[in-house]
Amino acid sequence: MKTKIEKENDARMTRLKGLNHLYIEELVGYLRNQPQKDYLALEETIADVIDNAADAQTHGRSARQYFGADAQAAAKAIAETIPAASLSEKLVFFIPLFSMLMSYTIYPAILQPTIQFDWGSLVGSWMFIIMAFLPWIVSFDQHRIILFLLLFLSLPLASVGYALVTHQPPSHLAILLSTWPVAAALLVLMPLLFLLMAWLMRPLRIVPLSWCVLSSAASIFGFLLHYCPVFREPILYWGINSILIIAVLALFIWQLNRTPLYRQQISQLQPPQ
Where are the transmembrane segments (predicted)? Predict the structure, then answer.
C-alpha cells in the first residue's frame, strides 16, 4: 500500500522522459530500499531528486549527467544526507517479520507436551536468526553484509565442528530438555516482549499490541494444553493450531501491506533519533 506522498512522487516522475525516467526510477528504487532512514525525510528527498532531474532535463542535461553514471552510487551518496529513522519506525518494519518467524519456529516447538531440541529445531532457529537480521542488512553498508554472510555460514561451520568433535553427522543431534519449565517461561515471555515493543512504539502501539493479543492467545492455549488433557485431543488440538496459523499469516500480510503508512504516521509524530 503506497502512501499519499509516495503516489505524489510517482506522479511527479511522469515529467521525466525516456532514459531520464529509467535512471531516476532506478535511483528512487535504491533510496526506498532504506528502512533505516526517516520515512518523511526520505520521500521529501526523493521529491527533490525528481524535481532536480526534471529541471536538468528542461535545460538539456540528462539525469545521468546530473547525478552521475552510477545510479546506485548516487543513491548511496544521497542516502547519507537523510537522517536515520527513529526506533519506533524501525520496529514497524521489524515486528511483522519477527512475529511471523517466531510464530512458525518457536511456538510449534512449545505447543506440545514435550520439547525436543534436534536438528530440525537447530535449522529452524538458525533461519529465524538469519531472517530477523534482514531489516538491518538491506542497505548499502558493506559491514552489515559481511555480518550477514558470517551469520549465514555459522550453521554450516557449526555442523562441521560438531561432526569433527563427536564423529557423528549433525542429523543425529537430539537433546531432550526439561519440558514444562522451558515452555512455560517462553509462553510468558513472548507476550511480555510485545508489550515492551508497544512501550517503545508509543506513537503507533497497534502493531505490537495486535501481536501481543495473538501471542497471548497462543500462550493460553499452551497452558491449557499442559494442564487440560482434553486439549490434546487431535480434533481440538489441530483445529486451534489451524486457527492460530491462519491468524498469524493474515495479520502478517495485513501489517506488511500497511508498513509504509505506519512509517509515515510515526515519522510525522516523532522526530528521528
Answer: 91-107, 119-138, 145-165, 177-199, 206-229, 235-254
